[in-house]
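Why does residue order matter? Because the sequence determines the fold. Keep that principle in mind as you read this record.
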Amino acid sequence: MKTGIPVSKIMTKKLVTLSPKDDLVTAEKLFKKHHIRHIPVVEGKIIKGMLSYTDLLRISFADAVDEHEEFVDTIVYNMFTIPQVMVNDVVCVTSDTTIREVAETLSKREFHAMPVVDDGKIKGIVTTTDLIKYFLKAIE
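Structure:
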């Protein structure tokens, strides 16, 4: 396995994002539509936070709703805003951070995704799933 490979080789570049002004119903729909678990919250290209599907589960009974259903119980979601639920203090990496460094960080922390930010602008996201796929290919 090669060392020193930048995370830009495995990160997701086609981003699904939210604005701090979006609502949690919109977030729920995006999680389900795109089958993802983490969404960067941005203003323009500037990262403001990270919302995970787990964050929604903590405030709702979203896990009781069928994953493929479009219906969302909006009562709880209307009680909170995205900035109230998202993680504000986001750990970011740059596109030249090595895959090894990202793997080390994620293995020691209690989160599963990090935005990739260059010159203050979001360029992608790297998740534990991206890492697992990379390592599986490497051991073939």
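Strands lie at 38-43, 46-52, 113-118, 121-127.
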